[in-house]
Amino acid sequence: MDLAMSEAETLEKAPGGPPLGTGPGKPRSLWSDAWYQLRRNPIFLVSGLLILFLVVISLWPGLIATGNPLECHLAKAQEGSQPGHPFGYDSQGCDVYTRTVYGARASITVGVCATLGAALLGSLLGGLAGFFGGWWDALLSRVADIFFGIPVILGGLVLLSVVTSSTVWPVVGFIVLLGWPQISRIARGSVITAKQNDYVQAARALGAGNGRMLLRHVAPNAVAPVIVVATIALGTYIALEATLSFLGVGLRPPTVSWGIDIANAAQSIRNAPHMLLWPAGALSITVLAFIMLGDAVRDALDPKLR
Amino acid sequence: MGRYVIRRLLQMIPVFIGSTFLIFVMVYALGDPVAALFGDKAPDPATAARIRKELYLDQPLWKQYLHYMGQIFQGDFGTAFNGQKVTELLASAYPVTLRLTLVAVVIELVVGITLGVVSGLRRGRTVDTSVLVLTLVVISVPTFVSGYVLQFLFGVKWAVIRPTVSPEAPFSELLLPGTVLALVSLAYVTRLTRTSIAENVRADYLRTAVAKGLPRRRIITRHLLRNSLIPVITFIGTDIGALMGGAIVTEKIFNIHGVGYQIYQGILRNNAPTVVGFVTILVIVFLLANLLVDLLYAVLDPRIRYA
Amino acid sequence: MLLDVRDLHVEFRTRDGVAKAVNGVTYSVDAGETLAVLGESGSGKSVTAQAIMGILDIPPGRITGGEILFQGRDLLQLKEDERRKVRGAEMAMIFQDALSSLNPVLSVGDQLGEMFIVHRGMSRKDARAKAVELMDRVRIPAAKERVGQYPHQFSGGMRQRIMIAMALALEPALIIADEPTTALDVTVQAQVMDLLAELQQEYHMGLILITHDLGVVADVADRIAVMYAGRIVETAPVHDIYKAPAHPYTRGLLDSIPRLDQKGQELYAIKGLPPNLMAIPPGCAFHPRCPRAQDICRTDEPPLFRVEGPGEDGERRSACHFWRETLRDA
């Protein structure tokens, strides 16, 4: 047939019998198989190294930036690249390179904390709803629907506009508040699927208690989809934080944030485009790294798509 | 089918009440609209109390909400604190954002599906890999970055379009803002179409279509696309609400006086009736779009229709 | 001869190596004749059928040799467009799982009528009438009312009847049925098989029946071809094979059918596993599992010997060095 079925890597439909599809080595568990796949995936290696680098500089920005991000000289405002200041100066005369390096901390902190919070809350609520069903499940689904009904950025504008704190926590809290329903849906669905597996039914028939079933049989099988969605969400949460900061309701000065810097730079984009380029580039690459990582993890954990 | 629609409509009611109440609480509970009305001056207590009574603000929050919803269903969205009718603001802003969203959705449909089909049919080849890399990059660049960059390039550097949109916001001026608004969703549509096509290409019924001796063109359009596009249509439908809500960033960049712009101004000025009115309509649009998707889904997939 | 497959070779290229799915298959079918192709999964019986229909997934599949003569023409030499006109019109295929093989979002009337629209240039209305006629023909009750319904609204047996109707639509000269009853309830299997056999007689079509169910074969087939590791190991008129198999593998297959007169005895099973198609054993591919294997079986690949014996009523062949001994022991 001439339809382009160039599935050189898969052979599901080649009716060649059982010995065809078995890969090298002995059968592995989902997790060790996933890890084996990941190690051989260049996308995982590139994004993993990038993320490692970002985490390190957000913990110790002084390693590669010796300046002070809050030390600015108005006289040098909007000047271009100079020795020792490769990215030039922004409108307040702050060093763009130093601020770009220091901006990683806010993005990574918000991304990681919000993802952890949303993933924990979402999988706890969704997992229990999926496992026990009944009125609790119905209630939770409706509540999740309500949160889905609220446009994210508008919700952020309304809720965060009254906040005066300059820490990252209000933003983290807000993202968790609007992010958990997505995770809870995934967790609920995969718990229901796992619960229906024959061996889980068998364990139930043999008299295993609820707690034991949930921890030993259901949770390990339901956690993979949550990890995949959470990893991809991490990237989008970082973009969301930057968007909120850009709109003036996310992080506030003196916190150094790419979103704030981009908003400031955008006002003078005609005169000094370099001010926009660096924080915007750093932000995009960070989001890209997490989304690529999520893609790689999904490919590894979902053998069906391979 | 009729019962299905009625059930879906009934399910929308609690979600509508929940979402609007939440927004209502956020807006009214968090800021003091009367204080905002007076700006920096301290209000005269008697006047403040009178205004509070007029605006129903002295009542418990749930009563305020009921009163407000009651008025909305009589077509009265209240008056902004500057004296302008909220309905007038709605009437001027919503058509603009609807046009912007329409441009974005058309771009998503045409470009996203085309790219997705091409790469799905050529999985693993160069076209596919390039499209995949491109979508990753597009997803990673936040809208406000791509918006400014494209505005700078097209509007300032090459000066092929006006960098900002005039108040009438005709379709021709909304092309670039619409593209900016569509970009991230466009990438998702492309990837979703690609996955869906690649899955269905391997389906048994497609092998049957080949065995029937159908021409390739007919196999693709009638059998492959029809099945593969069902999840894509669903995504685009739910995305309409998200686009309208997210248009705020695009509208700010291109100075479009649409829904996002009005809500943004409303929040900055703590103008509660404007914000709640706009968001309520937005929630309704979002819910209706979801309903439409469900119905479309039932039309496209008979397995749902007769379930 | 209606269909003559000669020395067909098919490979699949995978990440882990080349799988030789079909290695020199030769068989033929006459008009009005039923050839049953038997074998375990992975024996190459379905791949051969897909190669004949021209619906192999290429890549990863590849036809590396042989010819497929259909009504005198070598199908492998035809251009894709000419080949397409043969598919569905002159030869048709019935698949195992009708639910997944029918398009879930098109009504059965649309899917049946499509054959007439594409191959015969009929109008939609005429095609619809033809679809109803076909559904009547395969005895689907209330065809007129049900023609607009979708596959999931039919029972398994009815769906398989629709598959049969679709294959019969243009009265092809050859039908290939790939395990047409395997997915059905036992009670429905016989009905569907009878219908197929009856229609085949009526239209005087050639039928290739791919199956691993020996019970089905005995009732409907004229000849049997047994496949193992992508080769034909025995081919014979159906009665001869049941009377006395001339290949140890066929023998094993027959012995593994449960029988009422041997109640209580342990069921026979061929020892070992089907071979890995990426590393087919040298010599006779069956030798690691064969109770009769000698040194020659490990080194020399047996050709298809002509089997002669008392009471043979047709051409009979076996790819076993010891076919005489096997035949005698039976």
From TrEMBL, chain B:
Tell me its family.
Belongs to the binding-protein-dependent transport system permease family.
- Organism (species): Streptomyces luteolus
Q: Which Pfam families match?
A: BPD_transp_1, BPD_transp_1_N
The portions of this protein that span the membrane are: 12-31, 98-119, 131-154, 174-192, 224-249, 275-300
* Membrane-topology annotation of the record: Multi-pass membrane protein
Any keyword RNA-binding?
no
The protein here is known as: ABC transporter permease
Chief localization: membrane
- UniProt keyword annotations, A-Z: Cell membrane, Membrane, Transmembrane, Transmembrane helix, Transport
Q: Where is the ABC transmembrane type-1 domain?
A: 94-297
The highest taxon in the source lineage is Bacteria
Cell compartments where the protein resides: Cell membrane
- Oxidoreductase listed as a keyword: no
Automatic annotation (TrEMBL), chain C:
Listed InterPro entries: AAA+_ATPase, ABC_Ni/Peptide_Import, ABC_transporter-like_ATP-bd, ABC_transporter-like_CS, Oligopep_ABC_C, P-loop_NTPase
Q: Which Gene3D superfamilies match?
A: P-loop containing nucleotide triphosphate hydrolases
Q: Which PROSITE patterns match?
A: ABC_TRANSPORTER_1 (PS00211), ABC_TRANSPORTER_2 (PS50893)
Question: According to its UniProt record, where is this protein located?
Answer: Cell membrane
* Topology class, membrane: Peripheral membrane protein
Kindly list the GO molecular function terms attached to this UniProt entry.
ATP binding
As given in the record, the signal peptide range reads none
What range(s) does the ABC transporter domain occupy? Answer: 5-254
Q: Which UniProt keywords apply?
A: ATP-binding, Cell membrane, Membrane, Nucleotide-binding, Transport
Primary location class? membrane
Q: Which domain of life is it from?
A: Bacteria
Name the family the entry cites.
Answer: Belongs to the ABC transporter superfamily.
Write the protein's name: ABC transporter ATP-binding protein
Organism phylogeny = Bacteria, Bacillati, Actinomycetota, Actinomycetes, Kitasatosporales
